[in-house]
Design brief:
32% of the residues lie in helices and 29% in strands. It is α+β, with helices and mostly antiparallel strands. Strands 21-37-23-33-34-35-36-22 form an 8-stranded antiparallel sheet. A hairpin with a 5-residue loop joins strand 5 and strand 6.
Length: 661
């Protein structure tokens, strides 16, 4: 019987022998596994490094904002009178504050109705905003456009009118209040904005063709000017806020005062007249200390990650994953290079981090000396923001820093303005006709390339009131407002001018037609706006509106010039601070073609190569094992054959004596 399984005929342990031989042959695979594990560990380490770099970049990017280091605080002795906040533009000082009146929004109520479903009427409601003067006239608010709300038959109930007004979102709110009477459901209409100039004028175009009676939609007509229709009752009068700051009386439409004191916002909450309270504005040194400490912490967190990944434990003679790694050394060198380089110019009297008490310790970490920083903060000639952010500081108060790019070079540059930006406008020739009728109430115009048409309300106006009416109607055109376009209409000796609110060559206004063009403007003169022009640092700058952007060394340096004279306008000192530089450096380190990315790509390529080698070795191992099995199987068969021969010979030899007898 043939031997069919290795070792069965001869007793030779073929499987054991082959297994042991293959274990020796597979040693190169174990070496590859060790290499791959090392590469995987390095890859994980680089992942941790990239995560730490990303966190560091986020931290320093937040500190690259100049406002972080120029903040101020505002506080009131009597906190029940108002709340106060301050921006970096605020100037430290003490102010006395007396609040005489708070601003109020006007509220109007209708007559009572039996139910919210009671039919009121259909038609249109036109809302305008303005100030009712003592002489009985109304001066329309030129900054508030007239708005019209259509009320169809499906919305003609008291509740339907309320919902239609609210859905229109036109600066007016409507609600229904029940006073408990049998016909006590009253529609309450309120201006959303407080102030005398935001009182309501409501004009009705009633479906019953009678617009002023107490029937249908006309019941909501309200015009408190002389000769106007008043079908609603005023429950709360429009009122301005009145305050006295350091003996100066100020009136505002809102209880939020944003421009009474530069950089300070006051939110009035209670009148305290005739008493006064003290407002204190101070530099936010605690916030600046916290921002500086955040900068130190951000670097130390990154430094710890780098150290943990690359340190060598001399006591235990143990290396870390990235000990001696050239890429890590390069990253450390680049980071420290930023810290060790003084700013070329900062414009704030500071050029190194050590100037504010930030320095390296023996262990490679940063430390903040709060005492030294406080001393700098107490010096008004020092500006800490210039050490951290990319900041331009013009000496001219009518020029402000807008921004920069990575191409902008540090330096102090002369600003020369050869042309100021202007606005496009159209000016009438001759005084406007002040009586508006159905025959001269339409004006067509084009503002910055967008066409619009308006219809003025009939009536006799003063020149100022006519300008306000025209501005209100133009700014109420959806095609203009949706494009961010607005105009200002002014009058001088009765002559109207319509001026675009934007500056620059794209700013244009043209009165193109309409039944009122001749009466209001005659043959208007159109003047297109121009862009600001000039040089920064002697290099020709590009103007766009009021913004001037430099070239060459000042490439990307953008300044907004809001007025003043032409000619030399002082200098602008520009420097990229440490937070900005480190943000940029970290960003470059994290780019797809960066040093870190190149290293990880190399590691991945090595891992891929190991996979290729492993596959080739595995194929070779299969062939070697087959050869071993074939050889030892053949040996097994030979030994089995020899064993059989041995047995045969023994049997024959054992029978020889018998044959001799």
């Amino acid at each position: 019987m043939a031997i069919s399984s290795a070792g069965l005929g001869s007793g030779l342990d073929v499987n054991g022998i082959v297994t042991q031989l293959m274990a020796l042959e597979r040693r190169p695979l174990a070496v590859l596994d060790t290499k791959e594990a090392k590469y995987q560990t390095q890859l994980t380490a680089y992942g941790s490094l990239k995560g730490a770099l990303s966190s560091f970049q986020s931290a320093v990017a937040a500190l690259a904002n100049p406002a972080k280091f120029s903040a101020a605080t505002a506080s009131l002795a009597d906190t029940t009178v108002a709340t106060a906040t301050a921006s970096s533009a605020a100037v430290a000082g003490n102010y006395t504050l007396e609040v005489k009146t708070l601003a109020q929004a006007q509220k109007l109520k209708s007559a009572g109705f039996a139910a919210t479903s009671t039919a009121l009427g259909s038609g249109t409601l036109t809302f305008q905003f303005g100030k009712y003067e003592l002489d009985g006239s109304i001066t329309l608010n030129p900054d508030k456009a007239a708005r019209t709300v259509a009320i169809d038959s499906s919305q003609s109930s008291l509740a339907g009118v309320r919902d239609a007004i609210n859905a229109a979102n036109i600066g007016v709110s409507a609600s229904i209040v029940n006073d408990g009477a049998s016909t006590g459901n009253r529609l309450v209409i309120a201006s959303k904005d407080s102030g005398l100039a935001n009182a309501l004028k409501i004009t009705v175009a009633d479906a019953d063709l009678t617009n002023t009676d107490m029937a249908g939609l006309s019941q909501l007509a309200y015009d408190a000017s002389t000769g106007g229709t008043v079908n609603l009752t005023q429950t709360v009068a429009a009122q301005d806020a009145s305050v006295v700051i350091d003996g100066i009386t100020i009136t505002k439409a809102s209880n939020a005062l944003t421009d009474a004191i530069q950089g300070v916002t006051l939110n009035l909450t209670k009148a305290n007249t005739p008493a006064t309270t003290t407002l204190t504005v101070a530099r936010d040194t605690a916030g600046i200390q916290a921002a500086a400490q955040s900068f130190v912490k951000a670097y130390n967190d990154l430094n710890k990650t780098i150290t943990d990944l690359s340190k060598y434990d001399a006591a235990n003679k143990r290396s870390s994953t990235l000990t001696g790694d050239a890429t890590v050394r390069s990253l450390q060198s680049q980071l420290r290079g930023v810290f060790n380089t003084a700013l070329a110019t900062a414009g704030g009297g500071l050029s190194t981090l050590s100037d504010i008490g930030i320095g390296f310790q023996k262990d490679g970490t940063l430390k903040l000396d709060s005492v030294k920083l406080n001393a700098v903060l107490a010096d008004p000639s020092r500006d800490v923001s210039t050490l951290f952010a990319a900041v331009g500081k013009p000496t001219d108060s009518l020029a402000s820093f807008v921004g920069s790019t990575a191409d902008t070079k540090n330096g102090a540059y002369l600003l020369n303005v050869s042309q100021l930006a202007t606005q496009g406008k159209s000016t009438g020739q001759g005084a406007a006709v002040l009586t508006i009728t159905g025959g001269n109430n339409a004006i067509n115009l084009t503002v910055e390339g967008v066409a619009a048409g308006v219809t003025l309300a009939a009536g006799t106006y003063t020149p100022t009131a006519l300008a306000a009416e025209l501005q209100s109607k133009i700014n109420g055109v959806i095609a203009l407002s949706s494009a961010g376009i607005g105009v200002t209409v002014t009058q001088s000796a009765g002559v109207l001018s319509v001026t675009s609110n934007r500056y620059g060559a794209a700013s244009t206004v043209a009165i193109t037609g309409g039944t009122g063009k001749l009466d209001l403007f005659g043959t208007p003169v159109e003047t297109a706006g121009v862009d600001v022009a000039g040089t920064i640092g002697g290099f020709t700058a590009t103007g766009s509106g009021q913004t001037l952007t430099g070239s060459s060394d000042t490439s990307g340096l953008a300044l907004k010039v809001t007025g003043g004279a032409t000619g030399v306008r002082g200098t602008v000192s520009f420097a990229r601070g440490y937070a900005y530089e480190l943000d940029t450096l970290a960003g470059n380190m994290l780019k797809s073609n960066s040093l870190v990315d190149g290293r990880t790509n190399g590691i991945n390529a090595s891992i891929k190569s190991i996979g290729t080698q492993r596959a080739a070795l595995a194929l070779r191992m299969d062939m070697i094992e087959k050869r071993y099995r074939a050889q030892f199987s053949a040996l097994d068969g030979m030994m089995a054959s020899m064993s059989a021969t041995e047995s045969y010979l023994q049997q024959q030899l054992a029978n020889l004596p018998k044959a001799g007898g």
